[in-house]
Amino acid sequence: MTSLDTASASGASGPPPPRGYVAEPIASLRRVLFGGPRSFARHMRVRDALTGLSDVPQSGLTQIEEALYSYTLLPRAVEVLGGSVAGIEADTCESDALFDWSAAVAPRLWSLLSGHHKLSVAAIQQLGNGSAYQEKCLAQLDTGAAAGAAMFTELGYGSDIFHLETTATWQRHSRTYRLASPTPQSVKFMPNTAAEGVAKTVIVMARLIVEDQDEGVWPFVMELRTRDGLADGVEMVALPDTGYGLWMDHAMTRFDAVVLPESALLCGEVAAFDSQGGFHCELTLGERFARTTSPLHPARLSMGGAAVSAARAGLALTIPYAVNREIGPGKTMISHDHIARKLVYAMSEAWAMTCLSNTARTHGRSGDAGEAALWGMLAKAMTSHSAWKILEVCREACAAQGMLRANYLVDHIAACQGLRTAEGANAAVLGAAGRALRHRGRLLPGSSDPGWAQTWWQSLLTERERLLTIGIDVSGQPDNSTIELAAAVADRIAVDEMVTAAETTTDPVAHQLLTDLAATYALRKVKKHALWFTANDYISSSYAAVIDSELVAHQLSIEPHLPVLAKSFALPDSLPAPMVGDHIRRWIEYAGWSDRFGAASAATA
């Protein structure tokens, strides 16, 4: 069932609805999450298709075996969604739904999507020239017959792509390139390319050398591996397992005079070789870099939103379990205030990051390249970190159930850990965003300009952003200041968007819930930066009691509605996690003991 306006639409299992409950609050909440009824129905179609892949966490496999399994999911997902990656990517709603629901119900598929869809297929589409070689590579990727990956990072430079040392030297007479790793620092480090027997068509970032002239860093497409083995001149060593159980087949790769055809260079219409083999490009090195790294921006937007979806899935698993799990006579997990408070805080963070991600996707896809880069950095860094924190709250609250992979939380956390590390430290990404924001010199807009007055906690977040933008820094640490600025901008936008959603909904229950969630998130940020606000004469010590009392009031207002909020996330009831529903019955069935207890009792009697 995919109707947006029915209470029985598939969602996380939970207790019966409270007295007086009607369908409309969930319908209104889902409009904020997924858009209107048509968009929601499309999300449900993708959700059900991906759930049907049965990506059930398994035991006893090595990380490389897990990686090999993940590659079987990729062509199957493409097939059930129409058979073409290019077709999926041409439809923004379909692409967003694929990323978001894979994070929730098929984490091992999610780990491949950014490199395959955004950094390989989209890179060829956006930066290619339609040559026969590029079309061949694209055709392999389009069905999932070959898996895509991005070979950007290097041993000596990490994600500092502008300074990497891999070279692609132009051979004028043969009109080919020689791809090489000239120094130990230039070895490609961490791309997921180690799995043998998996065809890999990859995008390699390399420095183009023409007649001993450095022409900057460009992407090159190459068939790195067929099912029969590596391309000539490629040497590869699998890296050790990660400490977080992530199932990626990470590798170190060295290129030794690998021959690539002329059309391997992805430069679009901004550069070309003439008939004599001369290279022509009117862009500066910096402009070339901005152009050739442009596929990173939509990848960040997609992966950031997917991280939030994983966090929502974690809450949709945890909250019904907390409602059902009995701890002592007449007591449940969620009846303990320390559990309820943590779940309320995690819920407010999930909604804040959902609103931030939705806004970033809207603006990042409609603005210029600079705006797209800025929104992508903000969304990816903020949401991936928040999602990981939320999932850790869920895992810890569920204790032993949270530790078992069968209940998905551990896999959600592993995937978020991978995303947090995909471009090095998130703080570096936030710092880059902060520098861009300070250079911009004006507030980054949200999706709307509300006509209603700001609350006092909104005003405080806005003032913090304004002062950090103009360079007010009481710490004397410029790097930290730019990171704090980026986080302050993201916080303000997230709160404004939640308030906007509350003010525009027609359902009074949804309005109150969204207002309480916005207030909870904002007040926690005000409390976190209380010393900063005090140092800048915005609050006095007497405000501490006000902040705490309001925070508790909003928390208590949200607590009874946690099951409704969890159900609005639309996690399928069919997800085979033992903690969903009657966890005792499910584990007894897992052990094969369903018919043992009645007989034992009778024998004892």
Task: Provide an overview of this structure.
- The chain is of the alpha+beta class and 605 residues long.
- The protein has a domain at 24-34 and 295-568: Butyryl-CoA Dehydrogenase, subunit A, domain 3 (Up-down Bundle).
- 55% of the residues lie in helices and 11% in strands.
- It is built from 22 helices and 12 strands.
- It has helices spanning 24-34, 37-51, 63-80, 85-89, 92-105, 107-127, 132-143, 285-292, 296-324, 337-364, 369-397, 399-403, 409-421, 426-440, 456-469, 478-504, 508-528, 530-535, 543-558, 562-568, 583-591, 597-604; strands at 147-151, 167-171, 176-180, 188-192, 200-210, 213-226, 229-230, 234-238, 250-255, 258-261, 271-273, 279-281.
- The strands form 3 sheets. Strands 1, 2, 3, 5, 6, 7 and 10 form a 7-stranded mixed β-sheet that branches. Strands 4-9-8 form a 3-stranded antiparallel β-sheet, with no helix packed on it. A two-stranded antiparallel sheet has the order 11-12.
- A hairpin with a 2-residue loop joins strand 5 and strand 6.
- Helix 5 packs antiparallel against helix 6 and helix 16 (478-504) packs antiparallel against helix 17.
- The longest helix is centred in the middle third of the chain and has 29 residues, at 296-324.
- The radius of gyration is 25 Å and the shape is globular.
- The two termini are 47 Å apart.
